[in-house]
Amino acid sequence: MKFKPVYFFLAPALTAIFVFFFIPVISAFIISFTDFDIYAIGDYSKFRFTGLDNYFKLFDNQLFWKALSNTFYFVIISGPLSIAVSLGAAMILNSKLVKFKGIFRLVYFMPVVTTLVAVSIVWRFIYHPEFGLLNYGLSFVGIEKIDWLGDPFWSMPSIIILSIWKNFGYNMIIFIAGLQNIPEELYEAAQIEGANGWQRFTKITLPMLAPTTVFITIITMIGYFQLFAEPYIMTQGGPLDSTLSIVLYMYQEGFRWWNMGYSSAIAFVLFVIILAGTLIQMWVQKRREA
Amino acid sequence: MISSGKQGGLIIRLVLTGGLVLLPLILLFSGCKKEESSVKEISFWGMGSEGEKIKILIPEFEKQNPGIKVKVQMIPWTAAQEKLISSFAADNMPDLCQLGNTWVPQFVMLEALEPLDGFISKSKTIKPENYFTGIWQTNEVTGKIYGIPWYIDTRLIYYRKDIFKKVGYEEPPKNWEELLDISRKIVKYQNDPNKYAIYLPTNEWAPFVIFGLQNGSDILRDNWTYGNFSAPEFVEAFKYLIQFHKERLTPMGVSQVTNVYQAFEQEFFAMYISGPWNIPEFKKWMKDSTGEKWGTMPIPGKHSSPGVSLAGGSSLVMFKSSKYKPEVWKFIEFLSTKKTQLEFYKVTNNLPALRSAWDEPIFKDDPFIKSFYEQFQFVMPTPKIAEWEQIVFSKLQQYAEYAARGTLTAEEAMKEMDKGVDIILEKRRWMLAR
């Protein structure tokens, strides 16, 4: 075989990927078929290959299904909503009527770069049932006090509101870039033909943004399936496990109780779900193009 | 001449670079050697403020023991367990550390701890009879002693004396019935939907275990290999506590109380089950350090007071991997003398483990600490297994919440609880059967 210099240049990157990505993933996959736990950390003879036991145990566990349905609830509501908010904000900021665009862009992007720990302290005050800003505002409309984070019905909506507020700025920036790529002539032509604002939006803006939207949808979905930090800091999964997400459940099993085997199994179930979601979206997109 | 000059330059350069490379290496090796021969450095991991404050005691020890140096590293409580376990996996343990005594079994299972029986039998300072029995027992796992009590705590009830008096209780309640009775009276007296009698949040497992133990539950059965929460003893105690939630004698969610001290001061509740670490903070918020308006009382038992509470606190443990075991033991002995224990109390407010230290007036005459002394006579350890924390934090708190909110009845909740616990303990059963 002839030595190609390209391998020489690729080697550092490939080694890094192999060591820090493939090896951990493969060993996690193997571990998911064992009962590797705190006992096994002390003494390697104390772990067993249990085959698919972890997966059976998982599907048999109500808490897992609860976490799964919570995660889907979050993704299905929060995903489209946050994309809509991002697009709305992007449209407004791209409009010619708006002044000080730079400042607004900065302001809307701020939540993305602020650490969640700081944000969550503020939001805990906003959500406080007695002294919270949100309940205070709602009291003017005649809505009674809501225990946002303490009521199992409202806890997930509270997390959704927080995460939309926290994340929409990022997608907004990408949408703005997408909007700026749409040639102005298209709108001018449509206007001459007598298209109104809504028609221009649905017939020009949306189709022209399609590639951007697909990218954003996939990235957002993958990110939202991995919901962790918001419930971890705000509610620890409570009340009544109403904000327990799959990743939070995985973290608790793995790093709080050291059931590494079990928590690796959770990781791979989540992987399959995300993979399936991504494939479906790409398939839908392809069909549309065809 | 020119060529030889060039040669000479090259040699000089070689020597110089070689020297530059070798110099740090030489320094490094000589540095290591020096330390090993004369001074033995033992590393200690302390948690939270203890890890900070213990530094005040070190100079005295180093003066008494020339040749031993103590290096203290502070690790925060919240990250302590994770850090210890990952350091263990990486074979990077300190020589000794402070360990919450419910964690001792976990590290015994990891085979990380050195049994101390040999040291104790030869020691003049440390003897089992110098400690409260319930506390000493927490360090005994599978027949061997793995830790020396450093400071101790237990839980009892902080209460509002003024409110108690207003509802006709000059003396604190003495049994379960009176505790429920006074709670009802307080809620009736306050007559305010935002004021409660007692704070029993479902994300604090301790009260549930305490009342279970008081009712004679063994918590886990068959050598701690199966849950025994659905047995009548535990269910009765559990139902008793859930009663407080059902009758709205305790606030339901945990988000309403952001600051327990403030809530206590504003009469949001009149009783709170907690440990000695809260005394200074309550003193400050109540603006009362003499016990006029508030006080502490042992937890009433089912029929008489004091009832059983938990044996808590921190122990000093030695790691198997330590190279300086005799020196580490010397340091443990130093921390266990009456003088050091009293000094440690003064800087941290942690109650001394040594019983003789309790003869001092600072404990005997303190209105708040007195009740702790009474309570320490009635403390019991929790089951000494590695899975304990997982059982109480993930399962007991979960099912307590389900029962308190009425999603499940107390009986159903405890049946589900046992199912979950049995799954957690499967590994333990397998290990014992091996």
Summarize the structure.
Chain A has helices at residues 5-31, 38-42, 53-59, 62-94, 101-113, 116-127, 133-140, 155-180, 184-193, 197-225, 229-234, 246-256, 260-289. Chain A is an all-alpha fold and 290 residues long.
Helices and strands in order, then pairings?
The complex is a heterodimer of chains A (290) and B (434).
Chain A: H1 5-31, H2 38-42, H3 53-59, H4 62-94, H5 101-113, H6 116-127, H7 133-140, H8 155-180, H9 184-193, H10 197-225, H11 229-234, H12 246-256, H13 260-289
Chain B: H1 2-38, E1 40-47, H2 48-53, H3 58-64, E2 68-75, H4 77-89, E3 96-100, H5 104-109, H6 117-122, H7 133-137, E4 140-141, E5 144-145, E6 148-153, E7 156-160, H8 161-166, H9 176-190, E8 198-199, H10 206-214, E9 220-221, E10 226-227, H11 232-246, H12 260-265, E11 271-274, H13 279-286, E12 294-297, E13 309-310, E14 312-318, H14 325-335, H15 338-348, E15 351-352, H16 361-364, H17 369-376, E16 379-380, H18 388-404, H19 410-424, H20 426-433
Parallel strand pairs in B: 1-2, 1-3, 8-11, 13-16
Antiparallel strand pairs in B: 3-14, 4-5, 6-14, 6-15, 7-11, 7-12, 9-10
Helix pairs in contact in B: 10-11, 18-19
Describe the model.
- The complex is a heterodimer of chains A (290) and B (434).
- In chain A, 75% of the residues lie in helices and 0% in strands.
- The mean pLDDT of chain A is 91.
- The radius of gyration of chain A is 24 Å and the shape is globular.
- In chain A, helix 4 runs antiparallel to helix 10 and helix 5 packs across helix 8.
- The two termini of chain A are 43 Å apart.
- Chain B is globular.
- Chain B is α/β, with parallel strands linked by helices.
- Chain B has 20 helices and 16 strands.
- In chain B, a hairpin with a 2-residue loop joins strand 4 and strand 5.
- The longest helix of chain B has 37 residues.
- Classes of the chains: A mainly alpha (290), B alpha/beta (434).
- Chains A and B meet through helix 2 and helix 12 of A and helix 4, helix 18 and helix 20 of B.
